[in-house]
TrEMBL record:
GO MF annotation list: RNA binding
Protein name in UniProt: CRISPR system Cms protein Csm2
UniProt similarity note: Belongs to the CRISPR-associated Csm2 family.
GO biological process terms held by the UniProt record: defense response to virus
Keyword RNA-binding annotated: yes
Summary of the function given for this chain in its UniProt record: This subunit may be involved in monitoring complementarity of crRNA and target RNA.
Keyword list, A-Z: Antiviral defense, RNA-binding
Domain of life: Archaea
InterPro entries xrefs: CRISPR-assoc_prot_Csm2_III-A
Amino acid sequence: MSNIGKCILTDEEIDTILNINSENANEVIEIAEDLAKKLKEIPSSKMRDFYDYVLRIDETGDWYKELVLLKPKLAYNFGKEPSKIDRRTGEEKNKKKVALGILTGTFSKIIDEINNDKDKFKNFKTFFEALVAYHKIHAE
């Protein structure tokens, strides 16, 4: 299991995302907008690339394998972004790399929680659609 990036959503938030219904839909939208603000350094075209990959997954085939393969795609994009470490604090100063780390860690945990459940995958796609929409507004 990779340790790239950090998931910034709570277990409860992930559970809400993967079990979206008419009663918690507004909460899912709020989670999507909050996450979009934290990912604003990722270019909207890159976010759209990840979303398009998920949309192309054929749900009649081995869809979970294809979804799990999103993890290395995210990790590759995180890895190719150069690091700019602050010598005094040791913290990453490249905000785009930090945002890609957040996306990688968060989506890796969500994918693990989907765990081959097609209904949860459909709910993840709904959440991702909202995330992409809000990200377009907040992206720099």
